[in-house]
Amino acid sequence: MRSLPQPPGEPDSRSADRYLLWLARREWRSLLWASLLLGTYTVGTVLLSASVGAALDAGIGDPRSLLTWFGILTALIAVGTAITPVLHRATCFNWYASAYRTVQVVTRRSVDLGPTLTRRLPSGEVVAVGTEDIDQVAALYEDAVFGAAGIAGTVAAGAFMLTAHTDLGLVVLVAVPLIMLGVVPVLRPLARRQDHQRTRQAELTTRATDLVAGLRVLRGVGGEHAVGERYRAESQYVRAAGVRVGWMDAALSALRELYPGLLLIGIVWYGARLALAGEITVGQLVAFYGYTLNLAAAVRHLMYFTSRYISARVAAGRVVRILGLVHDLPDPDEPAEAPAGLCGLSDPAGGVSAPAGLVTGVVCADPADATATADRLGRYRDGDTLLVDGAGHAVHLRDLPLREVRRRVLVADNTAHLFSGPLREELSPDGGLSEERLAEVVHAAAAEDVVRRSPEGWDAVLTERGREYSGGQQQRLRLARALALDPEILVLVEPASAVDAHSEAAVAERLAAERAGRTTVLLTTSPLLLDRTDRVQFVEGGRVVAEGTHRELLATVPRYAETVLRTAFDEEGP
After folding, report:
1. CA 69 to chain CA mean position, Å
2. Fewer beta carbons within 10 Å, N or C terminal of the chain?
3. Residue of 42 and 353 predicted with greater confidence
4. Which residues does the UniProt record annotate as the domain ABC transporter (predicted)?
5. Which residue has the higher pLDDT, 180 or 344?
6. Which of 353, 338, 327 lies closest to 396, judged by CA?
7. Stretch(es) of the chain classified as CATH 3.40.50.300
8. Predicted local distance difference test score (pLDDT) of residue 370
């Protein structure tokens, strides 16, 4: 037994053909084994035809001769029967191996790209790769055996025909390549129409995801009908593109039956004439008929494999497009050595600094400044942000590998996705946290009510995005998950904006204790959270304009008090 999935390796993403060849090289043993199985089965059917013809010529009146040929035919049928389940298992393994490998490399690259992926490609394109293209690529390797079987059947049948009658064998060996050339004019339009239909499908998927994500807003502004009509119109474009692909696929299927049928008629007619002229025996004529059926099947196998390759090549082109994307924030050619020990952050662009081991509050008069600050601190956009240790030694985040930055700095905001599955796996994906530790982080996030809500407790199953929970409960689950990771540096963006005042006070009290001794940045305007920080920085116009404790800034900086308390101030007070 071979386990799946296997280590994916580094894909060749220079072109669709190179990617398909890379997949074939990774699984060449399994592909060769499956091809040998079906090739043996195909050659066995040719031998079966030859045996029937030879038995007729040898005469079956003699009991010994009858038993001999009966034994030969039985052995050939038994071998074919035994090969069938083994062949099915081998082809299934080829499908799963290539599909899993493609899933692995696409997922790995998507994780590496992060926000770059959604900025470069629409969401529908990414979804279509995962739902359609991977299946098309895998189907090629599942059906690759048909190409080998077509070649084996053609060679075996042609060899027997050449042995029996040279002219007839030559006709076959010339006709098969001509038949394959005859389908070439259909392949290019088929590939072009499949690519067009695939593009339309990705656009429609993007429209559908946008529609579902914004359905509540659309209903609120009365735009649901207009967007629905637009989706309906675009779905008709996709349907029309699919029909055009269907016409070309139907034409190819028709040729797959027509050409082998013409070959069958021609060979049977020519063989019958040879038998009437006495150039071949009746047994040879029967064998020729069997050979012709085998040839027809071989030609259909070759044409079927060709159509599969066309579809897989279009799909592989989409996969390669993702694999070939360049990260907006590439790793440095010569990475710097990261400071050891507990570190803090410093953002010269905005003046924000978060000393090591302290909880720092950052209040931004403009919410856009909060987003920009969080992006720079976590290196989701280029900047001069520094990683600073306790002794003052600093290194730019851009000089570190991105994986090192992600390992040490976690930015948690309210756009983070909640995945479907057990609550335990949501909070601890690797399963490394005990129930005691899970209880601690849930308590720190004031999310005990989420656990108590279901009798299953930690095994309660979340739906996609945690839609069964309120906005405040979802927010506290995201906070618990971030705390469970226990990063060296945690940047929280409005972690309690959707919760009630009681829960907000509990989060404020418990968060500081949970993060004691580690670096934490709170980008928030919550007075309850800010009152529990070690220091607060006030950002206005994209720069830090004031710094101190929360109560000091309330007393001395009117714009800070106005932002935090949402109260207008003048020279005489509020």
Report:
1. 54
2. N
3. 353
4. 290-566
5. 344
6. 338
7. 343-565
8. 92
Angle, helices 144-164/28-58, rounded to nearest 10 degrees: 30
Which tokens in the block code for residue 312? 């897989």
User: Other CB atoms closer than 10 Å to residue 483's CB: what's the count?
Assistant: 26
Tokens standing for 351?
A: 């003046």
Closest C-alpha among 475, 327, 467, 463 to residue 405: 327
On the 0-12 / 13-18 / 19+ scale of CB atoms within 10 A, 294 is buried
**pLDDT exceeds cutoff 70 at 572:** no
CATH number corresponding to 343-565: 3.40.50.300
pLDDT confidence of residue 544? 93
Given this model, what pLDDT does residue 369 score? 92
CA distances 21 to 38, 133, 316, 463, Å, are: 21, 16, 11, 39
State how far the Cα of 528 lies from the Cα of 511, in Å rounded to an integer. 11
**∠ CA 367-360-393 to the nearest 5 degrees?**
115
For residues 485 and 429, give the distance between their C-alpha atoms in angstroms, rounded to a whole number: 10
What distance lies between CA 12 and its chain's CA centroid? 17
Q: Which pLDDT score is estimated for 427?
A: 85
- Rounded to whole angstroms, what are the CA distances from 182 to 297, 343, 524? 17, 69, 69
Structure tokens given for 358:
């302290």
Three-state SS sequence of 501-531? HHHHHHHHHHHHHHCCCCEEEEECCCHHHHC
**Each residue's pLDDT tens digit, 223-260:** 556 656 666 777 777 777 777 777 777 777 777 677 77
CATH 3.30.565.10 fits 16-323, yes or no: no
pLDDT at 569 over 60: no
- CA-to-CA separations, 259 to 153, 168, 176, 233, 286, in angstroms, rounded: 16, 17, 9, 39, 21
- Specify the 3-state DSSP secondary structure of 396: strand
Question: Which region among 275-284, 356-365, 453-462 has the lowest average model confidence (pLDDT)?
Answer: 275-284
Transcribe 329-373 into DSSP letters: SPPPSSPPPPPPSSEEEEETTTTEEE-TT-EEEEEESSHHHHHHH
CATH 1.20.1560.10 domain locations along the chain = 16-323
Backbone angles phi, psi at 394, to 5 degrees: -130, 155
How far is 461 from 454, CA to CA, in rounded Å?
9
Over residues 551-561, mean pLDDT? 92
pLDDT above 80 for 428? yes
Measured CA to CA, the distance from residue 96 to residue 250 in angstroms comes to 28
Q: Is the peptide bond before 5 cis (omega within 30 degrees of 0)?
A: yes
